[in-house]
């Protein structure tokens, strides 16, 4: 998993609450088995009309947000089904951070396992970021996981919280497999002494 320490990027304001995972990545695009390739279908039903043409008023179609890597949204982001594909789609599109007042628990856990940082700020703080992102061209934020701070260098600054274990995993790029491999020597030692392993080895 790609480590996350500090990131500066353009902010895209998605001024909607209760954005569910079916809106993030609609069910008809869940046929892939890889984690890549979902970005082009992100928010598909909002980005495109029924005939496949781009909708005129969706935020990600605006030129100034084309290279956005930080998404700011309303409360309860990622609600709905538990599909991990929602996180894959956001990451594949290019987002590294999602900022919102609250997140669905399963979505937040899936984000942690895929290196996508979810930052919880107050509704007032999120509203201020939204205002600045809409009103300032090329508006950027710096999100620092080591200091747990979000700032724009233009007067806005906020702190956020994260439990120590989750923070450690993100800082070091450790997903479930990475955490397991930290104990690779102990696992190998156990397997070498395990009777079933020894029996299989003798048969080989």
Describe this structure in words.
The chain is α/β, with parallel strands linked by helices and about 200 residues long. It has one domain: Aconitase, domain 4, CATH 3.20.19. Helices cover about 35% and strands about 15% of the residues. The chain has nine helices and seven strands, in the order βααβαβαβαβββαααα. The protein starts with 5 loop residues before the first strand and ends with a helix. The model has no long low-confidence stretch (mean pLDDT about 90).
Radius of gyration based on Cα positions: 20 Å
Uncertain parts: none
Output the number of helix runs: 9
Spatial strand sequence of the major β-sheet: 4-3-2-1-5-6-7
Span between termini: 35 Å
Shape: globular
**Class by helix and strand content?**
alpha/beta
Q: List the domain count as a whole number.
A: 1
Q: What helical percentage do the residues reach?
A: 25-40%
Which fold name is given in CATH as the topology? Aconitase, domain 4
- Provide the CATH superfamily: Aconitase, domain 4
- CATH class placement: Alpha Beta
